[in-house]
Each structure stands twice: as C-alpha cells, then as structure tokens.
Amino acid sequence: MRSAETFGETTSFSYDALGRRIAKRSSHATTLFGWDGDTLAFESTQSTEGRQELQAWRGDSVHYIHEPGSFVPLVQIRQAQAVALSQTTDVKALIAANHSCNCGQRSQRDHHCLPGSRSMTTKIFPRYIHKMYYYLLAMSDDELDEFHINEEPCRAKLFDAMKVDFDSFGPVSKQRILEALEYIWASGQIEKLWGWVVPQAVDLDEVEDKPAYLCALYKKLSGHEPPHRDFGPDVELVKSAGPHGVDMRE
C-alpha cells in the first residue's frame, strides 16, 4: 500500500528494496521505521510543526528489543525510558546485551546477535519453500497417481508452476527461499533436511537425485546455479511461522 485517505487526509508510505515500510507521511507528522532483519527495531515520529520550526525534536521515539530469534517484543524504550513487556524480563541486562552486540555492517541476509555474545547468527527460513508447492497440494489423488517427480515432463511442469508462485512473492520471501535452498544444498545434510524441500504431506515417489533436484530448482527460480557459500557454524533454522504467520507478500 502506497497511500491511504481517511477523512479527506492522505497518508503516504515508503518502502525499502526488501519491501519493509520505512516511512509514513501525513500533513501532521512523519514517522520513520528502522528494521533489524524482519523485526521492527524502532519508530520515530516528528510533527510537521516541529520540523518546520527546525526544533531538535517534537514527537515520539520508540525502540523495540525482541526475544532473540522471534517476533516477541520484550522491551520498549520511549525516549530513554525502558518499559518491560514481560514480567520476567531483566530490562537492564537485556539492554546491555543488546548494545554490546557488535554485528558490524549487516548484509541483506537475516542476522541477529545472541545476548551476551558478539557472534553473528545466520537465520534460515526453510518453511518458505513449501509455499511454492500449491501445484502439488491442489492435485487430486488420481492426478497424484499420474505424477512422477523423477520424470522430466512432470518435474518441468512442477518447476514451471513453482516459478509462477515464486515470481508473485515479495523480495524478502524470494530471498529467504533462495537462501534456504542454498543452505540445504551446501549443508551436507540434504537427507536430514529434505522434509523442508518437498512437502511430506504429499504422497510422491522418492526423489532419486536430491542434490540435482535442489540445483535445478534453484536455477529455475534464480536463473543461475546456486553459489558455493560457507554459511559458517552459527546457523539457526527458523522453523516456526512466528506470531504473524508467513506473509509471502513481503
């Protein structure tokens, strides 16, 4: 959504290359949003009057600290005043851990730092891969009986349908799908992670050459072979959908 009109007043919205909202503007105020991966890190609002008067600040600023690896907010900091959102949260310790985490410059891959640690963890979202299998999930039992995933014509139709779904997704979802495929392909644990590649709820033949399947699917989606990438020792597989589910429009 780029703009909305309420009671005759128009509010406009701006987004970054990953589809995350970074600004909201109306005739009364401007709100800027900052992100840490896919979680909201802060929002700051300044009134139009304050900006026109060149004041240092007239508005509100809220910083959020989330439970590591989740969307659960633990602390809000409003203009240097911390408000705990969980009764079990040690506010001072959590803020100290959050500020001591020195991740350096972030890439577009999802990263987060664990409290009390300076190491960077790469988050991989394999759940997103299944969102491309509507073609299979919509088949009747008779159609599935005629579908043989190891035969080139059947696999070509499947990959064509998956590419259509992939192209309809937002930039964050596309990135997460490709990174999940990259990670599984390079992990050396393809058999262990295969349930994330092909939905186990669908009764299919066993894929005979799983590395080749992954490579071909990645190439179909991206237009090139998967890169040989070292993901390092600190990788977190995010298996849950989070409190807001999986939004493939992101």
Outline the secondary-structure elements.
Blueprint: E1 3-6, E2 9-15, E3 21-25, E4 29-36, E5 39-47, H1 48-52, E6 59-66, E7 73-78, E8 81-84, H2 91-100, E9 111-113, E10 120-124, H3 134-137, H4 141-145, H5 152-168, H6 171-186, H7 190-193, H8 210-222, E11 235-237
Identify the notable features of this structure and list them briefly.
alpha+beta; 250 residues; Lipocalin; 25% strand; single chain; three-stranded mixed beta sheet; eight-stranded antiparallel beta sheet; elongated
Tell me the strand order in the biggest sheet. Answer: 1-2-3-4-5-6-7-8
Integer count of domains: 2
Q: Assign a percent range to the helix content.
A: 25-40%
Q: Kindly, what is the distance between the CA atoms of the first and last residues, rounded to a whole number of angstroms?
A: 12 Å
If helices are DSSP runs of H or I spanning 4 or more residues, what is the number of helices? 8
* Helix and strand composition category: alpha+beta
pLDDT averaged over residues? 75
List the secondary-structure elements in sequence, H or E: EEEEEHEEEHEEHHHHHHE
Give start-end ranges of low-pLDDT stretches.
Answer: 50-57, 97-109, 111-119
Rg over C-alpha atoms, rounded to the nearest angstrom: 22 Å
Strand count: 11
Question: Can you summarize this structure?
Answer:
With 250 residues, the chain is an alpha+beta fold. It has two domains: 3-105, Lipocalin, CATH 2.40.128; 123-237, no CATH class. The protein has eight helices and eleven strands.
